[in-house]
């Protein structure tokens, strides 16, 4: 039974998103998969940015089309985590970042939510026709590696990048897999 669903952010989630960011700040934690929520000057600026992030003509610099989702509980709509799906890879994402970034608020970790979120994100990748999904994590992030492996992630390589050991996992979404 699914406990979560992925929804697109809207103005009605402003308080929930700001509370989510505050929880990460209180734990001095990094917010992966939030499309820059941690450093946006306002919720409204962030929302506008992510609402246009799937449009090629709206992208600048080295950005690729992407969709950001909120992972909310099915029953109470409580914000548990966030997922960012990059529709394709560029050189930066091929090294560090991959197709999917995600995070779970500290108070809801070690409850299986990350595994469920990643599974839901992989279903979205299928609709985007991404046949193989690259997910990266720091080698010392045991929880993330476990989440990826729980979703059929296969370790392909480990390497040093900017002072951290990075692991690359691939998940094959083709019918034959």
UniProtKB/TrEMBL annotation:
Any one GO molecular-function label of the UniProt entry: acyltransferase activity, transferring groups other than amino-acyl groups
Keywords: Transferase
Parts of the chain that traverse the membrane: none
Keyword Transferase applies: yes
Keyword Lyase among record annotations: no
Ranges of residues in domain N-acetyltransferase: 4-177
SUPFAM superfamilies: Acyl-CoA N-acyltransferases (Nat)
Name by which UniProt lists this protein: Acetyltransferase
Organism: Halolactibacillus miurensis
